[in-house]
Design goal:
Layout lengths: L2 H16 L17 H15 L16 H12 L1
Helix pairs in contact: 1-2, 1-3
């Protein structure tokens, strides 16, 4: 799976959770596109979409700042 394909899936999952479309660099938490419950819902969706485990401690402003940062995190988790 290419980085662009990963980002496309993440954008779709964010849209499903936040009920709005986002760009790769949109600040998901800072701009309150996602709240804490939305971030957890997104993490659960990402676990299903990518077959990775997202520990609660990793649902933070570093990893969930933007689609780009989530994609980097997913790529790291997928090895």
């Amino acid at each position: 799976m290419t980085p662009d394909e990963i980002k496309a899936i993440i954008r779709q999952e964010v849209s499903n959770v936040a009920f709005r479309e986002v760009g790769d660099a949109d600040r998901l938490l800072d701009d309150r596109i996602l709240d804490s419950v939305g971030a957890v819902d997104l993490a659960v969706a990402l676990e299903g979409a990518f077959g990775v485990s997202v520990p609660f401690v990793d649902i933070n402003a570093q990893h969930f700042a933007s689609v780009e940062s989530i994609a980097a995190y997913i790529q790291l988790k997928r090895g």
